[in-house]
Amino acid sequence: MTTEEKKKFENLIQAFALGALDKDDFIEFVHYMESNEDFARQELGEYQNLTALLVSFINPKEPPQQSLERILTRIDELGNSSPSRSPERKTISFTKLTSFVEESDNHGAKDANKKVEELIESPEIDPYSIVRNDQARPSFNRQPGFQRPGLSTQMNARGGEPQERPGAGDRPAPERDEPGEESVDTGAAAESGFFPHISREQILPDAPVEPLYSPDQQEPEPPYYDIKIDEPDAEDAPVHPISPRRARRKQLIEKELGEEFQEEPVEMAEDQIPEPLTREPGVKNRKSFRGNIIDVSGSVTATAFWGVTATLVICFAIVVYFMFSMIQASEEKLDNRIKELGTAQAKTELLKSTVVMNQNLLLFFSSVKTAGLVNLYGSDDFPETFGKFFYGVKERKGFLQFSNIMSFNSGKGFQLWIQTGEKYVKAGGINIPDQNVEFFELNNLPDLGQTGTFKVILTEENVTGSETPSNTVIMSGLLIMKAQAN
Amino acid sequence: MSDHELLVNVAKKDVAAFKDLYRRYNKLVYALVTKIIEEEALADTTYEEVFLIIWNKAHLYNVNSQNAYCWIITLARNKAIDTKRRKWNTTPMDPYSDDYENYIIVPHLSSQIDPLDLEMGMNISENIEKALMTLTEAQQHVIYLGMYYGFTQSEISKNLNIPIQTVNSKIRIALGSLRDNLLHGEG
Fold it and tell me: Is there a contact between A11 and B26 if contact means CB atoms under 8 Å apart?
C-alpha cells in the first residue's frame, strides 16, 4: 500500500460514511478497507456513527398499522420457502457479479433475475417462488459455464471473526403447511446454491423422492417407450412433397385450367378475329391472364397508343391549366395583400405624421400668448384640400396645417400670402410639399395687429420662390381682425 | 435487552426479538424512509422491506461492534436510497440480487466502531442538531444531498456545478467540523 493510496482512501472515509461514493469508488474502498490491516477503521467508525446519528433528530413517524403483520407474514413465508439461501455474505467482487449477469447468454436467467427484482419490489408476492418455479425447468444455473460465486463470508474477508450461524435446527419450524414446501431440497447442492433448489417431487409427482442421481453417478439412459407409429407405405405416399390435401387441390386446379385451354385454344382465337378492333374483350383478357405474348404491332395497338397519348396530353393540359389558374389566383391574392400592406403602411405613416404635427402644434400654442385661426378652403382646382392657419399676433408666428394636397408638379412648391389692402405680402418662405409633412411653421408674418380684413391664400410657386403670387391658388381663407385694447 | 442483544437473537431467527426490535426502531426507520422516498406507497413498501432485510441478513451484523443502531439505520438508508435510485434514476443499475443486497444494502461497518444503540442516539440527538446548525449553509446542503437525496459525489458535483474534488473536500470539512463540534461540546 503506497502512501498516496492510503491518503486517497482516507480522504474518501467521510464520503463513504455519508453514502456518497460512486460505484467504482465504493468497490475500491470496500476492497481496500477489507484488505488493509492498518486502514483507519477507528476514524471510519466515528464517521459512520456520526452519519447514523444525523437521523436521530428526525421527528419519528408512525408507520402503517398493518406493517408489522405484513412483515411477519412475509417472514413466515420466506422462512418456510428459502432454507437454502446462503447465510454468509459472499466476498465476490461486485464487478464479477455484474459481469456474471451480463455474460450469461441465457435469457431465462435474465428474465428470472428481472422477475425476482420485480417480485422483491412487491410486498404481496413471495419473490423466491418464481425462482423455484424456474428451477423446476432446466435452470440457467445449470447451464455450461455457470460459475457459482465463492463461499467465504465477507466477515472472514474483512478479517473479522466468523460469526455463529444459526443452524437448521435453530430456525423456527414451519408454521404453515404449504404444498411443496417440505420437498424443498436442503442438501449440499442447496447449501452452496445461489437460489433454493426444488426437489423432483414437485416436478414429477410420481417419481421417487430421492435425488435422481448423485454427482458421481452417471446419468441413467432415458427410458424406452414402446410407442407404435403408423406410417403410410411408400407407394401410398403422395407424389408431391406437400400434404395430400394440398396436392389434390393443386391437381384439380391444373386440370381445370387445362380444360379451359382445350376449350378455347389461343390459335383458334387469333384466327377467328377478323379485325383488331372487333376482338372480343373476353378472349383478349383470357390470353393476357394466361401469360401469352400480346402483339403490339397492330393498328389496334397504335390507335390505343394515340388514344392514350391524347388522353395524357389532355390530362396534362388540364393540370397545367389548373396550375396556371392557381398561380394566377395566388398572384392576385399576393397583390391584394401587398396593397393591404401598403395601405396599412400609409395609414401608419399618416398617423405618425399626425402625431408629429399635433406635437408641433402644441409647441406652437405654448409659444404664443394669443392665437387666431383661419380656415383655408381648397380652390376649384383643389376641391378636396383643406387647411387651418394658426397665428400669433404679437409673436408674428404662424402654423399652417393642411390636408389632401396630393401632388405637385416637379420643381414646384407652395407659398402663403396675406393680402393687406391691394397688396399680397409673403407670409412665409417657399415650402416644398412632402407627403409625410402636412404642416409648416411660418415666421416673419406681417403685422396683423390692426383692425381689418385680410385674405390668406396659398399658391403654387417655383421652388426658387416668387415676389408675387401666381395664378395657381391652392386654397384661401379670410382673416378678420379686431384691434385689442391691450 | 439491548438493541445489540435483540439483533443477535434476530440473527438466530427469534421472532419475539424481532418484534421487540421492530417496536423500538419502527418510527425512526419509517421517518427516515419517508424522508428519503416521498411517494407514500413506495415508502411503505420499502419500509417493510427494510425489516425483512434485517430479519434475513441479521447474521451479517458484526457482533463485536455492538452497534445495532448504526447497522439498522445505515441499512434502512441504503435500502431507501437504492429504491429511490431504481425508481427515478435514468442510469442503469445492477440487478437486485441476494449478493447485491449483501454487498450494497447491508452496511459495511468498521470493525472498530464504538457501540451505540437507539437510546444513546436519542440522548445526543439534540447535540447533533445543534452541531449541525453550526455548519455553513453550503456544508449542510452537501450533507443533506448525500444523506437524504442519495446523491453521490459526482451527482452532487453535477448538481452544484462544482468539481468533484471540491465536493469531496466539502464533505470532509463538513463532517469533520461536525465531529469536532460534538467532541468539543460545541454542539
Answer: no
Contacts of B16 (CB under 8 A, 6+ apart): B9
The interface predicted TM-score (ipTM) is: 0.95
- Cross-chain CB nearest to A49 (options B27, B70, B108): B70
Encoded amino acid at A417, one letter: W
State how far the Cα of A220 lies from the Cα of A213, in Å rounded to an integer. Answer: 8
Cα A297–Cα A301–Cα A305 angle in degrees, nearest 5: 120
Q: Does B184 touch chain A (CB under 8 A)?
A: no
Question: Touching check for B120 and chain A: CB below 8 Å?
Answer: no
Question: Does some domain include residue A56?
Answer: no
**Do B27 and A44 count as a contact with CB atoms less than 8 A apart?**
no
Residue B7 CB coordination number (10 Å): 25
Q: Which residues of A touch B124 (CB under 8 A)?
A: 53, 56
Q: Which residues from chain A sit within 8 angstroms of residue B156, using beta carbons?
A: 20
Most B CBs within 10 Å, among A9, A21, A61, to test the B interface:
A61
* Strands A412-420 and A452-462, sheet pairing: antiparallel
Give a yes or no: residue A216 inside a domain: no
For residues A46 and A48, what is the distance between their CA atoms, to the nearest angstrom?
Answer: 5
A315 and A431 fall within a common domain: no
User: Is A422 in the same domain as A358?
Assistant: no
**Rounded to an integer, what distance in angstroms lies between the CA atom of residue A246 and that of residue A252?**
10
Q: For each of chain A's 486 residues, which pLDDT tens digit applies?
A: 678 888 888 899 999 999 999 888 999 999 988 888 888 899 999 999 999 998 888 888 899 988 999 999 988 887 655 444 444 555 444 443 443 333 333 443 344 444 434 444 444 443 333 333 333 333 333 333 333 333 333 333 334 443 443 443 344 433 333 333 333 333 333 333 333 333 333 433 444 434 444 444 454 444 444 444 444 444 454 444 455 566 666 677 666 666 554 544 444 444 444 444 434 444 444 444 444 444 445 556 888 899 999 999 999 999 999 999 999 898 888 888 888 888 888 788 777 777 877 877 888 888 888 778 888 888 887 777 888 888 887 888 888 888 777 656 667 778 888 887 778 888 876 666 555 566 777 877 777 777 777 888 888 887 777 888 888 888 888 887 765 554
Taking contacts as CB-CB distances below 8 angstroms, the residues of chain B near A69 are: none
Same domain for A73 and A193?
Answer: yes
A23 CB neighbours in chain B (<8 A) are 152
CB within 8 Å of A351: residues ≥ 6 apart: none
Measured between CA atoms, the residue of chain A closest to residue B26 is A63
Sheet holding A386-392, edge to edge: A423-426, A412-420, A452-462, A473-481, A371-378, A386-392, A397-403, A439-442
- Domain containing A157: what range? 68-201
Report the residue of A9, A47, A56, A99 to disrupt the B interface, i.e. the one with the largest count of B CBs within 10 Å: A56
Q: Which domains does chain B have, with CATH numbers?
A: 1-122 (1.10.1740.10), 124-187 (1.10.10.10)
pTM above 0.90, yes or no: no
Q: Which of residues 76-105 of B touch A (CB under 8 A)?
A: 77-78, 81, 83, 94-100, 102-104
The number of domains in chain A is 3
